[in-house]
Specification:
seven-stranded mixed β-sheet
Length: 178
Amino acid sequence: MNVQGRLSQLHLALANYQAVHGSLPNRVVADLNGDALHSWVASILPYVEQHDIANSLDLTKSWNASENETSLKRGADFWDWFCDDRYLVCSYSGTQSMWDADEKPVGTLAEHPRKVLLIATKADGVHPLEPFSISERRVREILMTGNDVLYVDAGRMHGHVEIHGESIRFDGEMTDAE
């Protein structure tokens, strides 16, 4: 239940970001050379009432650069909440994702309500700001080890991800194997 609550809160933050900016944030914040610096989480910090972290974060530097050390420390309580119970919430990069292969949103939440927005699963050693997403193949591997994978789609539907033959299933919807 805690994980589903976090998924709902992060869905709402993404919806509020979209309402202000006209689209979802990119899955990865990159520099002018295309090098990944931060995950989408950096973009929504003000929408989850984390203004102190957002204001101290240098988005022109990597999430773990020395210039961002203060932000990482300042946000310790938020990062703990984000990864409560060791469930990491991250973006999904499979065929049903709200983001395309170039890290850009495929459209608005209302246009694609069945697209998978976020995945939550047990993960250690990944920071929420780290540019990281989970692929269909990785979801399948996680499920095969007996771990749960939860999701929220663009329409705010929650569910468990399951293996079904060579595909994975999101609340009854099939996706092709990667």
